[in-house]
Write a structure and sequence with these properties.
By secondary structure, this protein is mostly helical. Helices cover 54% and strands 8% of the residues. A 3-stranded mixed β-sheet has the order 2-1-3. Strand 1 (6-11) and strand 2 form a beta hairpin. It starts with 5 loop residues before the first strand and ends in a 27-residue tail after the last helix.
């Protein structure tokens, strides 16, 4: 991977950042970027990939995962705001079709997420907004969406007096019905978290340095 040609990936628009990344690593980790790499080689001279629709700061987390992966691999969520970041990274993985990255973010998100997790109303609503706008309903429930809805249903009584939550109910017509159904279900068990270990992606870092 680390001897392959380097591509420049431009993420973001107003605050765009350029990342120089190895093409084989990109192709291995993301089906979407694999197509961009393939097209770049096919065209003969294009070694640039434009991702203006993506947030450059979020994409930076993906780059960190590609080359190091330490934060994602750490099975602990230390700050409340990290849950929001992880949810956004999960949806980034969805768009990039980076399935191993998406699994890693889900695994970290769920590592500390449970009935004892204390999140502010604002954070719960931000997670709900991400689940409703960026993770569409499917025949088989998306695992992160299921985690977020389960938690929100368990907090429904206090959320009902929060303005942001009321706005979400107005924006997403099925949200209230879905949460009420879960909250009224005595078997509203927490969705299971991934139990599979993260795949080993690289050897020890020092083997790449003289």
């Amino acid at each position: 991977f680390l001897t392959s040609p380097v591509f420049s990936v431009v993420a973001g628009e107003e605050n765009a950042k350029t990342f120089l990344l190895h093409s084989e690593l990109l192709a291995h980790e993301s089906d979407r970027l694999a197509m961009d790499v393939k097209n770049g080689f096919h065209e003969g001279s294009s070694t640039s990939i434009l991702l203006h629709e993506e947030d450059s700061e979020l994409f930076g987390y993906f780059v960190e995962y590609l080359y190091r992966g330490e934060w994602i691999a750490e099975e602990q969520v230390r700050r409340e705001s990290d849950y929001i970041v992880l949810a956004r990274l999960y949806t980034l993985g969805e768009r990039l079709q980076a399935h191993k990255f998406q699994f890693a973010t889900l695994r970290k998100f769920t590592s500390s997420f449970g009935s004892q997790t204390s999140l502010s109303d604002q954070s719960v609503c931000e997670l709900l907004d991400i689940a409703c706008t960026e993770l569409p309903e499917r025949i088989h429930e998306d695992p992160l969406r299921a985690q977020i809805f389960w938690y929100a249903a368990s907090q429904l009584t206090r959320l009902q007096s929060y303005d942001f939550f009321l706005q979400l109910l107005d924006m997403h017509k099925d949200l209230g019905k879905y949460l009420c159904t879960r909250a009224g279900n005595s078997s509203n068990a927490k969705p299971t978290r991934p139990s599979e270990p993260l795949p080993v992606r690289f050897g020890p870092e020092n083997i790449y340095h003289a």
